[in-house]
Amino acid sequence: MKPIRTILIANRSEIAIRVMRAAAEMNIRTVAIYAEEDKLALHRFKADEAYQVGAGQKPIAAYLDIDDIIRIAKEAGVDAIHPGYGFLSENPEFAEACAAAGIAFIGPQPEVMRQLGNKVSARELAEKAGVPVVPATGALPYTLAEAQRMAAAVGYPLMLKASWGGGGRGMRVVEHEDELAGAMEVARREAKAAFGNDEVYLEKLVRRAHHVEVQILGDTHGNLVHLFERDCSVQRRNQKVVERAPAPYLNESQRTALCEAALKLARAVGYTHAGTVEFLMDADTGAFYFIEVNPRIQVEHTVTEAITGVDIVKAQIRITEGAQIGEEDSFVPAQPDIRLLGHALQCRVTTEDPENNFTPDYGRLTAYRSAAGFGVRLDGGTAYTGAVITPYYDSLLVKVTAWGHTPTEANARMDRALREFRIRGVSSNLAFLENVIAHPLFTSGKCTTRFIDSTPELFQFTPRRDRATKLLEFLGDVTVNGNAEMKGRAAPSPMPGPARLPDCPLGEAPPPGSRDKLHELGAERFAQWMREQKQVLITDTTLRDAHQSLFATRMRTADMLAVAPHYARLASGLFSLECWGGATFDVSMRFLKEDPWQRLAELRAAIPNVLFQMLLRASNAVGYTNYPDNVVRHFIAQAAEGGIDLFRVFDSLNAVDNMRVAIDAVRDTGRLCEAAICYTGDIYDASRRYDLKYYVDMAKQLEQAGAHILAIKDMAGICTPRAVTALVKALKEGTGLPIHFHTHDTSGIAAASVLAAVEAGVDAVDAAMDAMSGLTSQPNLGSIVAALAGSERDPELDRSHLQQLSTYWEGVRQVYAPFEADLRAGTSAVYRHEMPGGQVTNLREQARSLGIEARWPEVAEAYAQVNLLFGDIVKVTPTSKVVGDMALFMVSNGLTPADVLDPAREIDFPESVVSLFKGELGTPAHGFPAELQRKVLKGQAPLAGRPGETMAPVDLAAEQAKVEQQTGR
Judging by beta carbons within 10 Å of its beta carbon (0-12, 13-18, 19+), is residue 287 exposed, middle or buried? Predict the structure, then answer.
């Protein structure tokens, strides 16, 4: 053998790199060529040497410049040239030029290439060798009339093909005679550009056909073998997209006949090196027909290598050196020793946009991550983060080959590999490929060449989330510009260290808690137990209302999860943990960029023993508008499944009818329904509309509606000790429900109201851990426990454990200091403006964003005035937000109540005010002063009753699909 020491690869990108890798393993030096447009291509830098070719020529023409390639080969002192596929790989003149220069051409002899590379002469050889062929014409003349005569002799429909090339270039379907002239013109132009020869011919079109090809190898000593077949039926525009081996639809006798036909043809011409004999197989009859020979290596050769273990590129090189097939150093076993070893398929990942008719895309790869792992092979070109994809060449980025013991395993491995890819910056066909290999017709192995064209569902894609890019952009933005949420806020200085977690062993399972009791008793008996037992039950609001009221709901899930397992062990005696609903849902998504459902799931996993409580805005769910009934029901069902045990349901105007859908939905889940009375005004103030009878009547309606528990929701913290004593006693006498008292410490004396409620017989109260209590939050949990210690109603919570939890929250709270309102003490002004505790911090934040924070006393007073303007309404989300919007509007625009009521003054009211008066928030349009209602609505009639009753149900499945499409969940 004459050893090859240096090889020039007369090609680019993926196939050039493939040859270089084989050469490197054989200790052969490599030389690359590159066009000007490819000067940054990876193959240039992969080779030992690289030279520019075809200077001044167009991008493709540069790689077709035979004279310049030979010049470079001589100057570089190469022994052989490998042509790859495409470009000059099937050009006999190039092979002859190599021979004339004394350089070995790694491929068949020029005369063999002429015989087989020309598809017309190849057909004639096949017929002589006894290989079945599809009816076809010879080379078409330039005279249209003669070409039409030849076409008519074969019969339409026909396939127009280039005589000197493949890869789909120059191929056109011709259905009728009047299409022939235009198709010939385009096909000749494409063939000339791609192969340097515009000869074309016509072939009978088999409609339902499999495209199957046989890989052959021949040495220079007359030995020929086949490496079995590949199925290439999955094509688009005659360009192969997915290839697999062996062909899934062949039985052994068909496989033997097909491979022997390929060898017959090869023997007839004394074929050497690698080649592919291609056939069409009629899917209906099983008959196969020879169509062409590709006298070169194929793009899809990797699947054959995967199932035979034969390195075809190394074999080409060894054959050129003179090795004999069957000898160990040839890398090709004798035919009896070549066996099928499993199954493989190859996908061509391209920079094309399937949603835009596969238009090639180009630009910089901002991110590139490829697949890996057992049974996955990658053959890539210029594919790495930062690579520039140019518009000048084929759009192939990387070939992925997956191997498996069975077709199913190979398919699954390919699916996994495709999903591991991340390609950003340019479009890719990854999603399309995933659809192809997942399609039942593909997995069945019955695809024909019309598969892609006749399967529109392949083009239905789920958008990629591209989380990594979004995260990197966010981190970059925050690093450079700072977090937008911190704009105008001073960060803590020095920055607090990690909060101190309780000293608590977490290895043992947590003790039984209230949730275990609910599972034991069921909702009805659990409510009865609440009323009968003597201890006062305590809900900790730290995980929801406390931080919502103190620092605008900004607490992150991470800070909750860190202490969650400690809660399960140190505070298992709590009645419940209010940890979800209210504003947490909205803020999680809008500001914290977190998934509230994930928060619920993770907290539930960490605290399996204590009831989880959420705040539900009845027909508004956790939003600020009215939702159709089926949406509310579905939301509640999902929340219950996610881990919520107790639903505190309220309506923003205390409309019981608006709460019935939610109450029924909660009961259907088997969870606890705590219906809330929103407390506003003063039951002893005769000028107000909310007296004791009002609340007792409402409580009775809620009991009849099916509530398990009754809540007094004192959202502003204005229920005085005297008032709550009377209210609790009246509700106890008027209903058979346990009572749960919720208040805020905005006034500074809310603990007195809590203790008064306990004395009056309330069954459960809300409080916040010491470090998260007071001001607009709930009263101090630890202090309430201490005050009740030793009494008949002692909650019997371990105060040392509570203190450890409070110490943790003290550290956490320091981190969120920039989001706290500038409140130093409780204020009796709350009895005037009646602003909910959670709204105080949020409204102050809105005032700050409008530049009127210094005018806060005016905003608070305007809030009180707006309440009276609106008819003394219940103020809780979403109505409280509307009152707040109107108050800010009045202060910002210098308006007084008289200005608002002035019929001569034109006012464009805030959109939320209009929505409230129209009843679009899910509340009846009642109780508003008529003159103001007319002015706000400007002649529009308000909606009567609950709009949800007339709203069309939402298609939940369609909405869920949209969410999954947008989020990938």
Answer: exposed
